[in-house]
Write the structure tokens for this entry.
Amino acid sequence: MKILIIDDDHETCNVLEQYLKLQGYYPTSVYDGKRGIDEIKSNHYDRVILDMSMPKASGIDVLNEIKDAVPEKPEKIVVYSAVPFSKEDENLIMSKGASALLSKKVGFPQLVQALV
């Protein structure tokens, strides 16, 4: 399974990539929302792990672009963010196509569970 990680925190990406590789997945990381949009448009990914607060394009911008302009959408988009969300934020994110919303406080096993 090909997984795209879109997160501006390089350390999070590196550790998460290593963990996913050990689980048998094929992760790729990009470090801003704009690059994430470009990557999704040019390559097929089965899943996306998406941060919300990033430079150049926010997580909402990425979700909007996937929803509106990507013909071959990832099967699941898991929002994985340190930012706390209100119930309205959660509803908006889920309505834009996210399949799960997780805090970065949860462990990687729970994140992988949301991906499968």
Notes: The chain has one domain: 2-111.
